[in-house]
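hey
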């Protein structure tokens, strides 16, 4: 797997080159399929990279699973295993993952790796798994932003609907009661494009923005506090 994106300021266009190379192969009659996966920002980048790129692909969006689909994703793969998650364990995994497939498989994999190494410990080490998820998945993105951009992201994370859509006005309003230097409308409108460029935010529709990375708001809040509770969730 490779992460590919064009950087016009540096005159680097690997995504455009990839699409051109694949079209050239297709014109020669070679039967290959190009499969690209990524965050919600991927398809707009394809369209921006090459004219009519949207005609090259069939787009499949995989978002949050339903409760039943989440349960199936947890329980079906373990049918042949000697260990089974308890009902509490299944509910905890769904809660931590919020139904996102990547996070479901991450928690399940880490749990079974822990169990193989510690066969007498039948608790899901949720705190340790979340810390590993933070360091493996989220931390690199967080380290790539300035202190003031972190303040802005922290403001967004305090919104009740932080994992859904938010607006500039909502960010400005919430920033006034968090003990940091408040943001004004112009600050936010200038900062968001830079966060979009860094792949942390994307513009969902006119005036509406979203975190590009699922559950990123939870990571931001955990930078300030992480609970230590563990429960016995295996049987």
């Amino acid at each position: 797997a490779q992460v590919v994106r064009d950087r016009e300021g540096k005159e680097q266009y690997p995504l455009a080159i990839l699409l051109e190379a694949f079209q050239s192969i297709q014109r020669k009659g070679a039967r290959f399929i190009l499969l690209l996966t990524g965050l919600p920002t991927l398809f707009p980048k394809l369209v921006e990279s090459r004219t009519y790129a949207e005609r090259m692909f069939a787009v499949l969006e995989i978002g949050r699973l339903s409760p039943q689909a989440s349960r199936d994703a947890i329980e079906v793969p373990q049918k042949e295993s000697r260990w089974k998650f308890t009902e509490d364990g299944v509910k905890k995994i769904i809660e931590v993952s919020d139904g996102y497939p990547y996070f479901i498989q991450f928690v399940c994999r880490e749990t079974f790796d822990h169990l193989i190494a510690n066969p007498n410990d039948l608790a899901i080490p949720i705190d340790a798994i979340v810390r590993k998820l933070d360091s493996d998945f989220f931390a690199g993105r967080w380290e790539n932003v300035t202190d003031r951009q972190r303040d802005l992201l922290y403001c967004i994370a305090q919104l009740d609907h932080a994992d859904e859509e938010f607006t500039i006005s909502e960010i400005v309003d919430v920033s006034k009661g968090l003990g940091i230097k408040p943001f004004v409308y112009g600050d936010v409108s200038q900062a968001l494009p830079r966060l979009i460029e860094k792949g942390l935010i994307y513009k969902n529709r006119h005036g509406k923005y979203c975190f590009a990375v699922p559950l990123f708001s939870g990571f931001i809040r955990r930078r300030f506090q992480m609970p230590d509770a563990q429960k016995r969730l295996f049987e």
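The mean pLDDT is 87. The first strand starts at residue 201 and ends at 205.
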